[in-house]
Structure formats: structure tokens, C-alpha cells
Amino acid sequence: xxxxxxxxxxxxxxxxxxxxxxxxxxxxxxxxxxxxxxxxxxxxxxxxxxxxxxxxxxxxxxxxxxxxxxxxxxxxxxxxxxxxxxxxxxxxxxxxxxxxxxxxxxxxxxxxxxxxxxxxxxxxxxxxxxxxxxxxxxxxxxxxxxxxxxxxxxxxxxxxxxxxxxxxxxxxxxxxxxxxxxxxxxxxxxxxxxxxxxxxxxxxxxxxxxxxxxxxxxxxxxxxxxxxxxxxxxxxxxxxxxxxxxxxxxxxxxxxxxxxxxxxxxxxxxxxxx
Length: 274
Hints:
By secondary structure, the protein is of the alpha/beta class.
């Protein structure tokens, strides 16, 4: 059933199965649900393997555009430029910095205080590769210091960068920190995920501060609305995304601005036609 607010939407963050973590849907399931809602495309994500091949198979099976990427967790090869280069050559649209294996994740979610090491030469090489292939670097579960360093490095290398769920427990950036990053780099976007604000999420955040953060970082021109959904305990897809988008409108954002963050900005990130 077509959903007016999602017409032409591109969700750059959906979790599907197979996965080590329980997921509600397969890649094909999500493609069919998104198409039925009138969406344009989805990007499927897995913390434990590349989704590039899976996305290609789902696209072939459904005729609906599904894109993939790789999360640079240690079991996927870690911060290895060779792994990134191969993934990009295969068609990865997004390269995520480590998530479950990041020091910040261990500190916040596992209760093991782990310092974030400074960025090394491999980080610059990864930024350069992502830029050369016209893809997007996303910050994953990097902590605030690593996010700030990555944005600075991306600016030097001409890399487009997406700050993953900027308002979530990781990296938990303040409005001021986000605004500084937005002002420092024209090619940085901020992801606003439905997951963060939905009932059933650990430590859900209210929608009001998310709206304030969107305004602090340049509004719809620099922000992307995604779902980060697929968890069995959370609302079905794409209902949770619709609920979040509607809540953004309900908290004062213009409907056209929310549509832009669902359609125009994801299209720019993925280098799709407007």
C-alpha cells in the first residue's frame, strides 16, 4: 500500500537477515515492502558481512533497487584498505566505520572503557578510496573524537561523509558539536534514525531534540532521515519510518523538508538522479 510521505524515499540504513543478530526481514522482504510503500530504493546493512552481493541478488529477484555496503568490523576485515577497495569495486555504496567492534561501542554498550586510538594511515587511504569511487563514508559506531577526526580527514580527501545516528548513544554529539562539523565540511551529512526514537529501543530519545539538531546543522540540506530498522521487537517496516517522519512534522518541521531528507539528500549521497 503506497504511503504518501514515503513517495520516492530512499532508506540508507535497513538491517536484514541472514544476520548473527535477529532480524525480522530478508533483503527481498524489505525490497518488496519498500516498493509497495512507493519508496525508491533501500540500502541493506549487516554488522557481520558485506551486503553488496546480497543487495544485487535482491535487486535481481524483485526489480527494486537495493544497494549494499560494508561495515569495517574486525570480522569483516577491519580497517583494511584492500577490503574497502574490493567492496567498492563490487559496488558498495556505503562504507561504515566499525560498529560492534569499535572502542566506543565497547565503552558504551559493553561496559568496557576502551580508549579510541588516533587515526592511522589506513584511515586516510580508506577515505581516498571512498572518494575515488564516489561512495559514502559513514561513521558507524565511532565515538565523538573519532567522528571529529574522520570529518576533518574526509574534508582533506574530498570524501563525502555521513555521521551515523548523530544523536544516538554513540556518538552522542551535542548540537554545538554537530553545528561545528557542518560548518567545517560541505560534504558532511547527519543521519536521523527512526530507531532512536521508537518505543522498544533501549534508551529512546525524544523527537524534539532531533528536530533541534536538524536545524542546528543546516536543515534538510545536510540531513538524511533513515530507519535503522529490522529488529523483531520494533515496529514493522516501513511503519516505523513513517511514524518517525510523521513525528518530525508534528514537532515543527515542514512536510516538504522531511520529504527532502527522505528523498533528495539520500539520492545525493548515493549519486542517483534527482
